[in-house]
Amino acid sequence: MRIIMAGASGLIGRDLSAHLRSGGHEVIRLVRRAPATAGEFRWDPAAGQLDPAHLEGAHAVINLSGAGIGDRPWTRRRIDELFRSRLDPTRTLAAAMAKLEHPPQVFISQSGSNYYGDRGTTVLRENSPNGSGIMARICHEWEAAAHGAPAGVRVVTPRTGVVLSRSGGALGRLLPLLRLGVGGPLGNGRQCWPWMTLPDVSSAFGFLLSAPLAGPVNLCAPETADVNALIARLAGALHRPALFRVPAPVLRLVMGKLADELLLGSQRMEPAMLAEAGFTWQHPSLAQAAAWATGRDQALGY
């Protein structure tokens, strides 16, 4: 397949690009600077500028664009940037596809588990309603923008949970603390985090290129875990204690709204559509995921 990818420089984008290329696919990156190679095309999503010719002959478009959720404090200006950095690229891609006589067959545009808001222990499948909160609103508008793609394009909006990686992502700051034995749960630790290892995320995106699925798809592992279980597994794989719990009031004092939406919110998400379509996880259990994320999977035979 010839695949056009936006947001290829991020954690998922880098791994997914390598995964797709190893499978024999051609990946063309959309960049906001002068192209450095023949595998790059320039665009300006903030201005809505993308030459439709760049999408000619593409079988699929993958959109991973979006400013980092937890990179900076949530000022009013930053919240506006979180919206614009997702909606502008998505609308620009959809508009460019609409100008083609033969648009790509599939448009995979990322969304997030925060679509559901803070839902406690309610089991969340793809038909569960939109929740409340800033991120829930962003995800709702983000998905709606993706469905602006022309008729005949299969639109998939993967709702990605916490991505477990050996470096960067959600564990980028946590793993070093756990290795030192000074990490611990956040808040009461009973909030559910829908998780998935980075290799499984990339495999799932690759699977969605050809699987007969459309609309929202929950991207998470089949095993449910709350923060207490997740931290305990990671610390156990490192043979370290995880005793230094960070109380919710402290998180809110330091991080404001970000704490409630990103760290203290709970989504017990179930990957119903992936499972029904026959997707196979490399790390379906938390034990396997923790061993992989901490680099101990070979020693444990995973």
Q: In percent, how much strand structure appears in the residues?
A: 15-25%
Radius of gyration in whole Å, from Cα? 19 Å
Helix content percent band: 25-40%
According to CATH, the homologous superfamily is: NAD(P)-binding Rossmann-like Domain
What is the CATH topology? Answer: Rossmann fold
Q: What does the average pLDDT come to?
A: 92
Total count of helical runs of at least 4 residues? 11
Any idea of the CATH class?
Alpha Beta
User: Tell me, what's the shape?
Assistant: globular
Low-confidence stretches: none
* Major sheet: 8 strands, parallel
One letter per element, helices H and strands E, the order comes to EHEEEHEEEHEEHEHEHHHEHHH
Helix and strand content put the structural class at alpha/beta
Name of the CATH architecture: 3-Layer(aba) Sandwich
Strand elements, count: 12
Walk me through what this model shows.
The chain has 302 residues and is of the alpha/beta class. The chain has one domain: NAD(P)-binding Rossmann-like Domain (Rossmann fold), CATH 3.40.50.720. 36% of the residues lie in helices and 15% in strands. It is built from 11 helices and 12 strands. The strands form 3 sheets. Strands 1, 2, 3, 4, 5, 6, 8 and 11 form an 8-stranded parallel sheet that branches. Helix 4 (174-179) links the parallel strand 9 and strand 10 (195-197). The radius of gyration is 19 Å and the shape is globular. The mean pLDDT is 92.
